[in-house]
Specification:
Layout: H1 3-29, E1 34-40, E2 50-58, E3 61-66, E4 76-79, E5 84-89, H2 95-98, E6 103-109, E7 115-120, H3 121-132, H4 141-144
Antiparallel strand pairs: 1-2, 1-7, 2-3, 3-4, 5-6, 6-7
Pfam families: DUF2550 (PF10739)
Protein name: DUF2550 family protein
Transmembrane segments: 6-27
Length: 151
């Protein structure tokens, strides 16, 4: 096999991988409800470990898909029944270089472990509204635990 054929095969493999990534994204995003966000997957180094992706709202779940992955299944699923936002902050230090300037970071707690999510400010407003909303007939767990005065 010559050098030219080797380059041609490598080019075809890279082109095929990119095509698969675009088709995967089209399959996941076809039903709408998509937001752009990053999830911190590692906290070993301060300000690092952010993985870009997109989230899809499906009922009471936010399903997070990595941007550069071949998997059709979400990498992480966050249920609004057990998710609560601890605090909101702006990117600091190294984080400022890895995400757009208008993004905010939400530190959330879930039943498994704390999770940090970064998204645009306008998206965060919608996310917080979704998080606090409850389907008809259901009571939000954050409200159910509080003692409300009798009416």
């Amino acid at each position: 096999m010559g050098i030219v054929e080797g380059f041609g095969i490598c080019f075809a493999v890279i082109l095929g991988a990119l095509l698969i990534l675009f088709v995967r994204r089209a399959l996941v995003t076809r039903s709408g409800g998509i937001i752009r966000l990053s999830v911190r997957t590692s906290t070993m180094l301060d300000g690092r470990g952010w993985s870009p992706g997109f989230g899809r709202f499906a009922g009471d779940e936010l399903r997070w898909y990595r941007m550069f992955s071949f998997a059709l299944r979400p990498k992480r699923v966050l249920s609004r029944k057990v998710l609560a936002v601890e605090r909101r902050r702006l990117p600091e230090g190294q984080e400022r270089f890895s995400m757009p300037a208008d993004w905010v970071i939400l530190r959330c707690t879930s039943q498994h472990a704390p999770v940090e999510i970064a998204m645009a400010r306008s998206t965060a407003t919608g996310f917080l509204s979704w998080l606090e909303a409850a389907p008809p007939g259901a009571v939000s767990p954050r409200l159910a635990s509080q003692d409300w005065p009798a009416a």
